[in-house]
Amino acid sequence: TVYVNGATAVTLVGGYDATITDVQSLTVPSGPDAGDLIGTSTLTTVDLTGLQNEAWITANALTTLNLSDNPDIDPVVSIENTAPSSGLTINLANEDATVKDVNRTIGGTLTIVSNGAGGTNEIHVNFPDVTALALSGEIPLTLVPVDLTSVTTITATGLFAGVLGDDQWATLTSIDASES
């Protein structure tokens, strides 16, 4: 368990489970300010290398999540924001993972970058309020949408293995894969 107050980045290498909390993203539990945020979150980047099972991240300022070096284990990463945000970039390197927005507060663009030493990356994503999806990278990516039901546009560049789940795309109006 890692608690930060004022940090902009956290890096964890190895480990079975991880809990990362920017204390400024928590709410006041009682009193006249109950329910208000304690302060302004500053944690923008989380790097998880070799995560074996599950991570829980609470950070309202999170813009970048880096997952790497676990091609045989599929960790689950839950992101809890208590304030709306305008997007997130997930960088995968030799990784298969599930990433989800617990509080339905991440909107805007979800960017997924697929890199690594070879093979493919696979990601299961649950971001019901994201409206745009940007996919790119050097090695193939397989995207498995658990809930991307608000996405209206997809832009894909670089190598791309495919998208599964045709029941997810009722709101989709545009796909640009001209540079794939």
Describe the fold and architecture.
The structure is a single chain. The chain is an all-beta fold. 0% of the residues lie in helices and 53% in strands. The protein is built from no helices and 15 strands. It has a 15-stranded parallel sheet that branches. The protein is globular and about 55 Å long. The chain starts with a strand and ends with a strand.
Topology:
Blueprint: E1 2-4, E2 9-13, E3 17-22, E4 45-49, E5 54-58, E6 64-70, E7 76-80, E8 85-101, E9 106-115, E10 121-126, E11 132-137, E12 141-147, E13 153-157, E14 162-163, E15 174-179
Distance between the termini: 40 Å
Helix count equals 0
Helix content: under 10%
- What's the main sheet like? 15 strands, parallel
The average pLDDT value, as a whole number, equals 87
What form results from the Cα inertia axes?
globular
Radius of gyration: 16 Å
Low-confidence stretches: none
Strand content: over 45%
Work out the number of β strands: 15
Structural class: mainly beta
Question: What is the string of SSEs from the N terminus onward?
Answer: EEEEEEEEEEEEEEE
Give a brief rundown of this model:
The protein is mostly beta strands. The protein contains no helices and 15 strands.
